[in-house]
Amino acid sequence: MDELKKIDPFQIYGFWKTLAISIFMVIVMLSLVRILPDQLTPVIDLVCAGALYGMTLSKRNRGGNCILIPYAIILSMVLNAFLCIIADIADWWKISGVSIPDELVSSSDLYLPALSYLPIAFLTILFIYLKRDRLSLCKTCRLSYADEINRNKIEHIFRYESHLQMKYLLCIFGFLSVLVWCYYLFFYVNININERDHYVFLWIVILGLVADEVYFAVRYYNLYLDLKVSGDIINESEISDNDSKTYLRFYVICGNNVYVNPEKVDPSSKYGKVIDTPFFTHREVSGIALSDVKRIISSQTGREGELRFFYGRKFGSHDRAVMRYFYFLDPDENGALPTLQVSGEWMDYERIKHIYSTDPGQLAPLSVIDTTRLSTIILTYKKYDERGYRRNKLHSYEPSFNLIDVRNSSLDFQDDKWIQISMLNADIPFFAFKRFWRRLLGQSSNIRS
């Protein structure tokens, strides 16, 4: 089970790769604008933004990597495209009182993309940095990719390093913005673009961005070496082990009680122990039939019950998966909670919810992940319909749930639909506009019209 707590080196590589691709697309965009006709600038910006989205933000290529940097870069490219269009229209119509320099008009032969894009990128990244922990993007990521980023130290690494990446890019874009604008205001001659102008407005910008990319490549290689020495990296034998593994995690439930081991040893916990389900095993296969799963949990508990699939997620670069199941038991004939073969105790779920709300460090990390998903889906379903509108018009209404609700529910906990609705619903300011913007950007949404 220790493999679940170790960091796959491909996670660190993928994290740097996401940054590298984002910076590379900025370089490609600025280079293409100088090579292709200036009139195509808005198209080039949008095409590069779309390409970057496909390589980093699309569900197929996410893989649990932090996407704050590509999100900010894509947003800056889209904003730059719209501002170019506005500047071109204003210049073309010769709006009274508006004088736009040729260097900011993409239809002009003297157009210099660095003058407009660098300040826009700086302001966009600054905005994302200031709102970083409040973005619905981050909340959705933590829920959707919990198995990838919340099992081990990689969550803290991603959090710290993504903020550090933004700080460095803020410094680079801020410095380059000041540099190109000072050169433009004090040294640039508005006749034609010479070699020195090309050097300042293009090559210095490219060198600055490449330097940032190289710095983080060295930084993450050293980070990999440090984690390897500390034993937090999956070792060579585990990496070369191509055998499939499926981890089975069961929540055994009776009424509103769940069976737990309250003294499970966990050196990574601040208490040295955590509350967790004692039913956690694995098999050396890529998938297990439901009948075999039922046989495993029946054998472990010594009781016949109702098996219900919760949800499952793959993790790492190999064929590994953690599958969660509910196993519902009925009380004994005398109404008492059943006695199980495995060491542990029945705990009222109200107590679990209280611990989760006040001191989640007492719970195992996977228990926190699963409780977050379970509560988010059920409470969102009770509160909103599939369009994201409140079922109860009384805004003070806040639903609750228990394990009896879970047993009686027919919800598909594998589906992310209700998680997306929890992040985008009628209680969110500018709900209609945000839903329209998400669809415009091609982001997946399960919210029905």
Describe this structure in words.
This protein is an alpha+beta fold and 449 residues long. It is 54% helix and 11% strand. It contains 16 helices and seven strands. The protein has helices spanning 9-35, 41-57, 59-62, 68-93, 113-130, 136-144, 146-149, 154-186, 195-230, 236-240, 290-301, 349-358, 365-383, 403-408, 417-423, 431-440; strands at residues 245-254, 257-265, 273-276, 280-283, 306-315, 320-328, 345-348. Strands 1, 2, 3, 4, 5, 6 and 7 form a seven-stranded mixed beta sheet that branches. Strand 5 and strand 6 form a beta hairpin. The two termini are 44 Å apart. The mean pLDDT is 84.
Summarize the main sheet.
7 strands, mixed
Overall mean pLDDT: 84
Instruction: Give helix % range.
Output: 40-55%
First and last CA, distance: 44 Å
The value of Rg in angstroms is 27 Å
State which percent range the strand residues make up: 5-15%
Number of helices: 16
Helix-strand string:
HHHHHHHHHHEEEEHEEEHHHHH
Total strands: the figure is: 7
User: Helices and strands: which structural class?
Assistant: alpha+beta
Low-pLDDT residue intervals, each spanning 5 or more residues: none
Global shape? elongated
